[in-house]
Amino acid sequence: MLRVNDVHKTYEESPLLEGVSFIINPDETVCLLGPSGSGKSTLLRIITGLEQAESGTVLWDEEDLRSIPAYKRNFGLMFQDYALFPHRTVAQNVAFGLRMQKLPTAEVQARTNQALETIDMLNLSQRRVTDLSGGEQQRVALARALAPNPRLLMLDEPLGALDRALREQLSRELRRILHSTHIPAIYVTHDQDEAFAIADRLLILHNGHIIQSGTPEEIYNHPNSLWVARFFGLGNLLEGSVTSHNPLTIQTPLGPFQVACQSDPPPLGKKLTLLLRPSDARICTPEQNLPNTISGVVQDAVFQGESYRLRISCHAGVELFLNVAHNIAVSSQLNLHFPPKTILCLA
Ligand code: ADP
Ligand code: MG
Predict the structure, then answer these.
(1) Which one, of 275, 215, 213, lies nearest residue 240 by Cα?
(2) What is the pLDDT of residues 150-200, one digit of tens each?
(3) How many CB atoms lie within 10 A of CB 126?
(4) Is the CB of 38 under 6 A from ligand 1?
(5) 180 in contact with ligand 1, CB cutoff 6 A
(6) Sign of CA pseudo-dihedral 24, 29, 34, 35
(7) Which residues are CB-neighbours of 328 under 8 A, at least 6 positions away?
(8) What is the pLDDT of residues 68-122, one digit of tens each?
(9) Nearest-angstrom CA–CA distance, 200 and 131
(10) Ligand 1, residues 7, 8, 11: which to mutate, most atoms within 8 A of Cβ?
(11) By C-alpha distance, which of 76, 203, 82 is closest to 152?
C-alpha cells in the first residue's frame, strides 16, 4: 500500500504542493485529477523518487522510501510521450526493462510474452513499432511498463495525444488490464470523462491540496465545493442567499428555491451557490403551482445522441442548460420545475 503523507513542494518560491496526503490501496485504480499546472506530474515524480519533496513522506507498506533510489522502488511508469525505440520490434521494446534488470533470456521472453498477451498483441510481437497505430503504440508502452511486474503503476496522461474515440476505447481497455493484473495504479489526467471511465476512486488536486476524494458516483452526486462542481461541469450554478430555514429557502435572481433540508442548515443571510443539474428539470405548467418553477425561452437545441441539450434564457439575464429526451422547438416558452431534493447547495 502506498501512503503519501503531508508532501510539500515549492518551485522558485511559489508553493505548488502544500500538504498532499492520500493512500492507494492494493488493487485500486485511482485517478489523480486537476487542472493543468496543479502539480500532478510533480507529485508523480516525487513518488517515483525522481524529485525530492521539501517535507513529507512517501511510504510503501509503511517503509519510508526516502533512502531508496528511483530504480529500486519497483514502480512502473507510462507517460504520454514515453518514447518507444523506433527501430525495434514490439517484443524488443517490451523486453527492454527486463534486459536492464539482467534477467535470464528465457525469463525475459516469458515475461515479454505474458505482457503482450495482457494487452492482446502477441500476434504483433515481431512488428516494428513505427508500423503501429497511435493506439497500438500506447498499448506497447503499457506492456513495457507492466513487464517487470511493478508493485505500483503510474500513468501520466497516457492517452492525452490520442483522438477522442480512441481515447474512449483505450480507457475502457486500460481499466480492464489494470484490474486483471491486480497492480494498483495512479492514473493522472485532466479529462473528467477519462477519469470517470477508469477510476475506482478519484483524487482532486487543487491549490496544493487534495480537496476531494471519492468514487466517481460520490463526486458526481456530492461535489464538496463550488470549485469541484465547476471543474466537472456538473450543471447550472445559481448564486443566492439563505432567507428561511423551514423549508430551507434560497433567494436567487430567478426567485426563491426550496432545497432539501440538510442536517446542518447554513445560517440566514449566508451566500451560497445552487447546483441545478440539466437532467433534473421537469417540464410543468403554471397551474401545477409547484415550488422551484422557472419560466424561460428555448434559445437553441443541440442534438447529443441520447438527448438534446437546450439553452434556455430566463429573466434577469440568467441562462440555464437542460437535457431533454425529445427536441423542443427554438423560441418555445417553457415552465420548468426543479424538485427540492435534486438541488445541491455549494459553499
Ligand atoms: P501538472 O502536471 O498538473 O500540469 P506540473 O507538476 O507539471 O503540473 O507543474 C506544475 C507547475 O510547477 C508548473 O506550472 C511549473 O511552473 C512548475 N514546475 C514544474 N517543474 C518545475 C521545475 N523543475 N522547475 C521550476 N518549476 C517547475
Ligand atoms: Mg503533467
Answers:
(1) 275
(2) 999 999 998 887 888 888 888 888 899 888 889 999 999 988 889 999 999
(3) 9
(4) yes
(5) no
(6) positive
(7) 298, 301, 308, 310, 334
(8) 999 899 999 888 776 789 999 999 999 998 998 889 999 999 999 999 998 889 9
(9) 34
(10) 11
(11) 76
DSSP 188: E
Say what angle helices 164-181 and 105-118 make with each other, to 10 degrees.
130
CA 204 – ligand 2 centroid, Å? 14
Torsion sign across C-alpha atoms 11, 16, 18, 20: negative
Give the atom of ligand 1 at the shortest distance from the alpha carbon of 34.
3
Residue 331, exposed/middle/buried by CB under 10 A (0-12, 13-18, 19+)? exposed
Helix (H) or strand (E) holding 312: strand 308-313
Q: Residue 44 C-alpha to ligand 2 middle, in angstroms? A: 9
- C-alpha cell at position 153: 503503476
Round to whole Å and give the CA distance between 148 and 210. Answer: 30
Nearest CA to ligand 1 atom 18: 11
What is the predicted pLDDT for the residue at 82? 65
